[in-house]
Specification:
The chain has 21 helices and 16 strands. With 477 residues, it is an alpha/beta fold. Strands 2-1-3-4-5 form a five-stranded parallel sheet, sandwiched between helices. It has a five-stranded parallel sheet with strand order 7-10-13-6-14. A two-stranded antiparallel sheet has the order 8-9.
Amino acid sequence: MTKEKQHVFRILVVDDEAADAEILLRSLEQEFAADASRDVEFTVTARAEGALKAIEQQDIHLILADVRMPGMGGIEFLKRLQAMNLSIPVIMISGLNSVDTAVEAIRHGAFDYITKPINPAVLSARIHRAMRMSEILHQNWTLRRMAIPPEGFETLIGVSPAFQNLLRLVQEVAPVRSTALLVGETGTGKELLARAIHNLSPDHDQPYQVVDCTRFPEGMIEGELFGHVKGAFTGAVADKMGLLELADGGSVFLDEIADLPLSLQAKLLRVLEEGEVRPVGGTRSKKIDVRFIAATNQDLEARVSRGEFRKDLFYRLNVVTLRVPPLRDRVEDIPLLARHFLIRFAREFGKAVTELHPSAVTDLVVYTWPGNIRELRNVIERAVMLCTGDRLTSKELALLLPSDAEGSAAVDSPAGEEYLGLPYSEAKEKVLEAFTLRYIKGKLAAHSGNVTRAAQDSGVPRQHFQQIMKRYLKDDA
């Protein structure tokens, strides 16, 4: 049996000090020597100019570059990479006397930095984190090349296990021409995911139509979906094709399908089962070949039990279900998403703001985002408009994020006075709940929303830490 060819992961090392480059290369080779699951190749250059040529000649997935180099320096190298619009994580290497320069490199787009002499344990941790980010960036670059709208592309970025599992499902579902149902709260990005499913399908070059089932009055939506013939009703002066027929050969996204009137649900079911549409006022049906992607923020099974949604239509739509996680279950993704929105709106508004202050990251991570990504985007947009410096701080966010007065009082007040009127056991429980909420929020903020590191720092298994988060942070929403 022939061994399946592995994807080659290429690491580029840029260091003009031959001895340092040799030590770094030896450490990298030892790190991956026992990892049979990866095929890693290394390229070494002494100057940034040579690194740019290497990038042009082959795919590079990760770069380790010295801050101080002859000719083009590390900061200028980063700027050149940004100008080339390359999604390659860069780890900068600095001497002990150039930490400030390394921090400046982070501000100019470096993913991380390490100092000399290099600690093997630190190198290993930083390398594997950067490799994970490289894989995510490569995956999202593939999605972008498949023509996902640029204005929404950034919301397909996420490092959380919940979102990465969802993206894997999208990639599995897309090539199969079956009906898909996206279930998730408002603002979680269901429409963007539906577009991704279409763009990653074999029919990505065919029409894609969006039907917002909440937008049209009940008397109009039938004509919009199925079209009408001339004279079907007053004002029908000519034949008109419906959105379903216009999508023939491609996909239709039925947004908020739960709000489709019952009178039209039977007709939609007929389209799904027979592949035919009949225009309003028409006597003949037309064959169409359409892939349906539906979305809802409601519990369709509950609506079925109340007689508000047809059971047979529910079963027909529920072939493949993708559950889109709310932002509170993707805490690790909040800083990454916020930074993307920050860069986008700073460019759009001509602002000099280029980064998030740690205080802003803390505020963003501990907030529970009932409006999900849509709310995060709106908050960052308004915060960028208010920002007058080069960093977005908690000062701008304080004006935009609603405060939870009750939760704040419970967390920040001294244990005792407000509980004196309660039985001991009940008072003790409330104090413990307040402490746990503050502790969890503090750990998440300290690690920029990274659940794994917060759990490790807390000495709590990750699964148990997540259970605590779901109980206390959800209640705090």
